[in-house]
Write a structure and sequence with these properties.
Elements lengths: L1 H9 L8 H10 L4 H18 L10 H8 L15 H11 L2 E8 L9 E5 L1 H6 L18 H6 L19 E12 L2 E12 H60 L9 H6 L5 H29 L9
Antiparallel strand pairs: 1-2, 3-4
Helix pairs in contact: 4-5
Length: 312
């Protein structure tokens, strides 16, 4: 009896196993894609509820160089007083050769060009000084036939002035304006280009000059057109005033008289009056005529000499 009890108690069920062991078994058990998705989603929600702070993103040295690089640095600045990011950019700046620049003329039609200084490998191979400095030019790399003609396969001499390409090169000094750190800067840069790339470099300046001349011509033409419009407005004003005066004169000549007489012509020209007003007007006119006659007789009497009566 006791043996049976001991045997039954020695066999433990799956619920009696430790939780850590059971969790390991469940984790290692195969799962479907849907179960895996649910598990990862629950894990994501647990992280979002806990609001685990994101890990700080570290910057690579290349990113630091892009942020702190300057095309032309001030030589009076002490490098030891700079931050380590600026010191890294300054150290890279000192490795560049700033006699001639390499140019990118991809967007030359819009007037946007890009410049950079040459590296040590480019200086030793003569790229940008004995070849065309445009990165997209076919004469940018040394000609294989010219390199094959060199003695003992020696590298090109950087001090030599003989071009390593089968074309004519031009040395140009150009003003280069650029935006750096939100500040507009300008510096003089020397480049070596072939004739075709030199035309592309001058294209933007030539186009800008043509645009300025066109704008000046349009402005002068606009001023002349404005003067012509003002003169036309002045002439129209004078013409309208003269026409207004002529119309006033015609209306004044054609206007009937405000004082009507008793003649048949005046009565026909004016509106017909009521009988009582017509009689009143005639009465006043007759009184006026009698007054004028009496005044005329008095004037004639006063003008004649007085007669003297002789004594009888």
């Amino acid at each position: 009896m006791d043996r049976g009890c001991r045997s039954s108690s020695s066999r433990a069920g799956p619920s009696d196993e430790p939780a850590s062991k059971r969790r390991r078994v469940e984790t290692l058990a195969p799962e479907t894609a849907h179960e895996r998705h649910q598990r990862l989603f629950r894990l994501k929600q647990s992280y979002e509820r806990g609001r685990v702070p994101p890990k700080p993103q570290s910057k690579h040295e290349l990113e630091i160089l892009k942020e702190r690089h300057q095309f032309v640095r001030d030589s009076d600045v002490d490098p030891s007083a700079l931050t380590w990011e600026d010191q890294l950019a300054y150290k890279y700046y000192e490795t560049l050769f700033k006699e001639f620049a390499v140019v990118n003329l991809k967007h030359y039609k819009s007037g946007a060009i890009a410049l950079r200084w040459r590296t040590e490998d480019e200086v030793l191979s003569g790229v940008g000084q004995l070849t065309c400095g445009s990165l997209r030019c076919r004469y940018h790399e040394p000609s294989p036939s010219i390199l094959a003609s060199l003695e003992d396969d020696a590298p090109p001499d950087p001090e030599s002035t003989a071009p390593l390409v089968e074309t004519t090169l031009e040395e140009l000094e150009m003003p280069f304006g650029y935006l750096e750190g939100g500040v507009k800067k300008t510096t003089l840069v020397k480049v070596v280009l072939c004739r075709e790339c030199a035309k592309k470099l001058r294209y933007g300046r030539k186009k800008a000059k043509e645009e300025r001349e066109k704008m000046a011509l349009v402005a002068s033409g606009g001023a002349e057109a404005a003067e012509g419009r003002d003169e036309e407005k002045r002439r129209d004003g004078e013409r309208s005033r003269s026409e207004r005066r002529e119309s006033d004169e015609r209306s004044r000549r054609d206007r009937p008289s405000s004082r009507w007489s008793d003649s048949s012509g005046d009565e026909d020209a004016g509106p017909a009056l009521p009988p009582d007003l017509r009689d009143e007007r005639r009465r006043r006119q007759s009184e006026g005529e009698r007054n004028r006659e009496s005044s005329d007789r008095s004037r004639r009497r006063s003008a004649s000499p007085h007669r003297r009566h002789s004594p009888q």
